[in-house]
């Protein structure tokens, strides 16, 4: 079973203000994410993972019948923003939850766990034709 684990950042800039963290705290956070991805690769559970650019650089695109309509987005009134994701292939939803909980505890400023929300959703496949 494949699951997408979506890391949500808080309202505002959508980046936990990481550029204001002491360099050693930012390094600890990045090192944690690298180790997590290495562990998931070693266990053959990682399908893919990426961090995403800040919400200010996101755009919403819609078909119009002509050139695509491109607008700013997501919008600042959003409660949270998608900051990154993992796609994992695991035997059970419970394993996906374990991985999400571990990712949630990534260290933040001063090494304190961020306890960030991680949304877990099963990746569905198309029905057989």
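-> sequence recovered:
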């Amino acid at each position: 079973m494949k699951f997408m684990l979506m890391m949500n950042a808080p309202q505002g800039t959508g980046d936990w203000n990481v550029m204001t963290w002491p360099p050693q705290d930012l390094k600890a956070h990045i090192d944690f994410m690298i180790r997590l991805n290495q562990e998931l690769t070693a266990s053959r559970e990682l399908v893919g993972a990426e961090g995403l650019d800040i919400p200010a650089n996101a755009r919403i695109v819609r078909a119009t019948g002509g050139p695509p309509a491109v607008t700013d987005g997501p919008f600042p009134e959003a409660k949270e923003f998608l900051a990154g994701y993992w796609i994992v292939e695991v035997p059970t939803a419970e394993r996906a939850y374990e991985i999400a909980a571990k990712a949630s505890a990534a260290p933040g400023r001063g090494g304190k766990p961020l306890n960030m929300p991680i949304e877990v959703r099963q990746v569905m496949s198309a029905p057989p034709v």
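The longest strand covers residues 80-89.
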